[in-house]
Amino acid sequence: MTTLTKTEDSPAPTGPDSFLSVRDLKVRFSTEDGIVKAVDGLSFDVERGKTLGIVGESGSGKSVTNLTILGLHNPRTSTVEGEIVLDGKELVTATERELERLRGNKMAMIFQDPLTALSPFYTVGRQLSEPYMKHKGASKKEAKDRAIEMLTKVGIPQPKMRFDDYPHQFSGGMRQRAMIAMALMCDPDLLIADEPTTALDVTVQAQILDLLKDLQQEFGSAIIFITHDLGVISHVADDLLVMYAGRAVERGSVREVMREPKHPYTWGLLSSMPRLDSSVDEALEPIPGSPPSLLNPPSGCPFHPRCAFRDQVPGTLCSDTRPPLGEGRAAACHLTAEQKQTIFIDKIQPRLR
Asked: Range of 289's domain?
């Protein structure tokens, strides 16, 4: 069942520049063990021509959020509440036929593993051409010409010859490039990239990231870039949303969040990253504990069972009360602004230098 609700706590839209607006999104799955709160009250905006990075550990709700935007959740086993507005079109209440017209045409996704996303039974050229013929009403020749053009743009060598190859004949980097070409075939206004460089070596990874930035400048697409790697996101995104246990815990520009993070979870993510100038014997500082079960998430702040600074908050505020995430540059944490500044300067900043 899919329902549409609004709450008084949902932030107001940020303005006319918001191309995609998500408000108080909640996605829940019915399982034999109970209800999984995969996304629990998420709000954000993406502007045209900008890239929003979404980071968090596995199970934080990143991929579920973006599959829901595309309408790829199973309505028989999931419940969706809230608002998803793409260029003025409400998606939560849209019919499957309306979503089919939008998918691949106005919005598209680059999946994490192209080997499983691409069908092994059809040539790469056919898989690129068919959506273009469906959405644009193009002839077979027009679709083939467009596919070869896009394979050229993403750097596939000898695109006319590779058009008739099958996915297993492409290398990992070439399959990822083909996935990008497929996503961009119909010039979508919104491109969702779900950890598109995870399985690639660092050289190919850098090439793919540069390619996405170049194509965004050419096509003017809004991009949502999902990853668990803050090092990657710092090079591709304009704004950053940090997710934990289905919620947004910190938001701001990439520069603001990377230079002066304000949430203990973000501190943990940054502190656990290796540095080029660190000694090979220097131990990383992992975040203690494990991500919570979304079947029975913690009360109050979802991060409080793993937070090293919860004893600086008086009483049981962290365990009893959910901290709000305000508008603009914000972090959902009960620590005062003065406490955050002191902790960051004394304990976090020295690890990041």
From this structure: 261-276+283-352
Q: Could you tell me if residue 333 is inside a domain?
A: yes
Is 63 inside a domain boundary?
no
Q: Is residue 321 part of a domain?
A: yes
Residue with tokens 């190859």: 165
Q: Which two tokens stand for residue 32?
A: 């034999």
* First CA to last CA distance, the chain: 49
Question: For residue 353, what pLDDT is reported?
Answer: 64
**3-state DSSP of 172-221:** HHHHHHHHHHHHHCCCCCEEEEECCCCCCCHHHHHHHHHHHHHHHHHHCC
4 touches 92 (CB < 8 A): yes
CA-based nearest residue to 224, from 69, 84, 51, 71: 51
User: CA 117, CA 104: separation in Å to the nearest integer?
Assistant: 14
0.85 exceeded by pTM: yes
Measured CA distances, 62 to 68, 121, 129 (Å): 10, 30, 29
Other beta carbons within 10 angstroms of residue 79's beta carbon come to 15
On whether residue 177 sits in a domain, the answer given is no
Q: How many domains does the chain have?
A: 1
Structure tokens at 63: 């991929």
Q: Render pLDDT for 259-270 as a digit per residue (tens, 0 to 9).
A: 999 999 999 998
β-partners of residue 21 are: 45, 85
Residue position matching structure tokens 């045409």? 105
In DSSP terms, 227 is beta-bridged to 55
**For residues 279 and 114, which has the higher predicted lDDT (pLDDT)?**
114
CA 281 to each of CA 53, 257, 274, 275, 284: distance values in angstroms, whole numbers, following the listed order: 31, 28, 11, 12, 9
Spatial separation of the C-alpha atoms in residues 139 and 259, rounded to whole Å: 51
Sign of CA dihedral 260, 23, 196, 265: positive
Cα distance between residue 143 and residue 183, in whole Å: 14
More confident residue, 11 or 190: 190
Using DSSP, how many helices (H) and how many strands (E) does the chain show? 14, 11
